[in-house]
Amino acid sequence: MAFASHNSKNGLHASRLDRPLSVNSMKSLASSPTALTPTSTRPKSAAPGSSSVQRRNGTGAQKSGKDDSGVSGRVRVAVRLRPRNAEELAADADFADCVELLPELKRLKLRKNNWDCETYQFDEVLTETASQKRVYEVVAKPVVESVLEGYNGTVMAYGQTGTGKTFTLGRLGEEDCADRGIMVRAMEDILADISPEHDTLTVSYLQLYMETVQDLLAPERDNIAIVEDPKTGDVSLPGTTLVELKDQKSFLELLQTGEANRFASNTKLNTESSRSHALLLVNVKRSAKNKQEKDFVIHNENGNSVHVSKGHRVPTIRKSKLLIVDLAGSERVDKSGSEGHQLEEAKAINLSLTSLGKCINALAENSPHVPTRDSKLTRLLRDSFGGTARTSLIITIGPSPRHRGETSSTILFGQRAMKVENMVKLKEEFDYKSLCRRLEAELDKLIADNERQAQAIFDGEEDMERKLEEAGTRVAEAESKVAAALEVISKEKQRQQKELVEMMQNLQIERAHRERLELELRENVQDLQDKKKKQIYAENEKHQKEIRDILEQHQQEIKDVQTRLANECGQRERLEKELHEANICLQQSKEILEPENIHKEELSDLKQMLEKECELRQQAERELDAFKREEKKLTNGITEKNDIGEIWVLKKRLEQELLEREKLEDEIKSLKQQLLQVHVDAEERSRTIGKGSSARSSGGSNSTISLHTPSNMKDTINGQRATIAKLFEQVGLQKILSLLESEDVDVRVHAVKVVANLAAEAEVNQEKIVEAGGLGSLLTLLQSSEDETIRRVAAGAIANLAMNETNQELIMAQGGIGLLARTADDAEDPQTLRMVAGAIANLCGNDKLQIKLREEGGIRALLGMVRSRHADVLAQVARGIANFAKCESRGAAQGYRTGRSLLIEDGALPWIVANANNEASSIRRHIELALCHLAQHEVNAKDVVSGGALWELIRISRECSREDIRSLAQRTLNASPTFQAELRRLHVTY
Ligand code: ADP
Ligand code: MG
């Protein structure tokens, strides 16, 4: 007998559903006693009882049913006794019931007679008072619960007609809900348990009558075929109406419809319901839930195993069936009294029931052949008896002793049925459809995802390619840059290395050079120290030698002076003697000549002069003594420390002394001359006594050269001038000038002095001298004379003459400038230089001669003389510069002169700047004036600024003691744009 079997579309089936047949258990059941003898009050087999207990507890088979293999599930049998009906109550009032129930022992006693009875053990014994509810719970509920868990279940009623099969199963309980039968209550429990969303509940209602299956829900379908699956043996009834139920109400309607159709059908066929079998088929399809997911293996048709992971677990579905069968009455045909058709009918009914009995017997006895196929009923109940269903059979019996045989037969059927062992199996199969749907959905999702991913990958690839290209380009650029940078770095490195090497070399050279220099320096320092020592020593030596020479010279000179003084003394004595003689002579002449007053006056003058001369001499002697003392002191005091400055001072003083001495000598000579003259006059007068006195009245003392006459001799000078005037008158200019060319030096000296004095005396004399050719003679003397005195005096004379504008032109015309310039270059004597400078200074004041003067070297000569630091010389130079500047300024103002100052051209500016603030006012005054004149002209401004004269100009404008010069400087500063700009540049507010 095939037990299980669940087809599937794809041919797969669960391995756990492979058929396990428990032959042993069947055998044990079969061998167990089916009935208890009166002596045997206890059933031999405890299995039914224990099984019953297990079921009631909701454990045992239900739980074991979940196992992969089927478990033993014996058909449970309960017996229900119908109460006496009205007829029985009436008819059998005097008779006792044929059965006695022992429900607590689950036993039934069947009376054979008054003294004998048989006892039967059942799974449940339900008395006539047992409620419908209790009957349901005891008989059907375990089956219903089992169906809801996925097992097939069968509840079947077997019994004589009228014993309450339909009452037990099909009562609707419309009037009294307590009457509700098993069908209604089962459906209530099923509907309460299933889930409308996940589970489906369909119901078919069939009638089997005379081996014909009729659909009670569609009565026209009255010949429904029973189809068996050849592989699994499962039976199905294609074409049966399957009503999907949602609620109890529709089920009740369905039952009513079915009953109505059954009634109508039976009426039509002129039969009774008790003669047909009614089958309510309830299909419960439930999705497995809360099952632990785990991997498992499924097999395909080829026997290959396919591993299914829990992620793709095949869902399972449980398709269980509850079959509630209300059998036709089991009464015997003969007893029913049927005939004809009824007989056939009874046969047919009995065929099914007989077949059922046979099958049950066979199953109970564990017979190798079970005649299932003998009737449609047994085919339909194939799974219910000896199959996989959990089956509960209720046998109904009546109490009447009249039906004792039927009752006994029913009890025996029940007893045999109790021996039927089913192998309950979970009706679970894979839900391939659901799986397929789910997989398709997943597949669609995966395809869509795949498409999206493919697109994304495609896009990504494109993007990636683009980025790769860009990156490649950038990398290439970067590489080229790096290469270029590396090249530059490499070159730079090489260059730096080269430089480093060079620097190192240079450093080494420098070091060597430095070392050499240091060495040289040390040597030089040593040399210098040595040289310095030597030099200092030599200089000391030299200074000492110079001092010694000077001392010697001085001693020599002093000796000379002493000698000369001695001579002078002798001379004086002689002169005194001569004077004395002259006095005598004069005395004698007085006596001879008239008037004598003049001679007396002259003599008085001479006496005075002589006295002065004596004074002078004494002064000279004092000075000489002082000089000697000085010399002595000098000799004693000279040390190596005395410097050249002191020597220079001494030299100067010595020069002055010499000058003084010369002057004294000149004086003495002059005196001698005068004396000579007096003497001549005296002689002439002696000779020309009696010649008028007019000549004598205009006569007077000769005068000396004015330019360098010492101040303490002014009175003498006046006297000399008078004498000279007298000489000029008496001797005549021509004669005096001729004396300039005398062979005798002394005569030439005296003559030139006379001319010089004349020139200094009056402008008239100057004209006369020039007219007489004196200028030429003087220039010749200046040029040719080697005598310093002559040159000095001649220069003085020329200077005097040069005060006159006409003479200036004559001097110029006769080459005087050149002569003066040469003298200026050659001369050493400060007085000579003073004269020459004075002459040139006078010439500088002539507007007409400026160009020529400069061309012939006048300015350069003038500037050259500043080498003599004598204040008198410098004063004359300053005067000359001032004169020249003034003329230039005038020329510029009058418009006939343009261009830079010739003074500046000849380089006068540095000296001007250097002496602008000279201590000597005679110098400073001229320089200040010269500077103002130069600065007045914008053409000189630049030189003034660059030469540093601007500051002197500012100083002059602020400090100069002379108002006119100060204001001239201020005007000049304000007027010059160049000065203003320079002052602004130097942020000097003026
Ligand atoms: P059957 O279907 O076996 O032929 P029925 O169910 O039609 O028997 O019952 C026959 C009669 O007996 C009915 O009138 C029914 O109501 C009644 N009957 C059956 N069993 C019981 C019971 N247990 N209690 C009361 N009345 C019953
Ligand atoms: Mg009935």
What topology does this entry show?
Layout: H1 23-31, H2 47-56, H3 61-64, E1 71-74, E2 76-81, H4 86-91, E3 99-102, E4 107-111, E5 117-121, E6 124-126, H5 132-148, E7 153-159, H6 165-170, H7 182-193, E8 200-209, E9 212-215, E10 227-228, E11 235-236, E12 243-244, H8 248-268, E13 277-287, E14 296-299, E15 305-308, E16 316-326, H9 333-336, H10 341-364, H11 376-380, E17 390-397, H12 404-417, E18 421-424, E19 428-430, H13 432-592, H14 597-637, H15 644-687, H16 694-698, H17 714-731, H18 733-739, H19 745-761, H20 763-771, H21 774-784, H22 788-801, H23 805-813, H24 816-826, H25 830-844, H26 850-855, H27 858-864, H28 871-894, H29 902-905, H30 909-915, H31 921-935, H32 938-946, H33 949-959, H34 963-975, H35 977-985
Parallel strand pairs: 2-6, 2-17, 7-16, 7-17
Antiparallel strand pairs: 1-18, 3-4, 4-5, 8-9, 8-12, 8-13, 10-11, 13-16, 14-15, 16-19
Helix pairs in contact: 5-7, 13-14, 13-15, 14-15, 17-19, 18-19, 19-20, 19-22, 21-22, 22-25, 24-25, 24-27, 25-28, 28-31, 31-33, 31-34, 32-35, 33-34
The structure holds adenosine-5'-diphosphate (ADP) and magnesium ion.
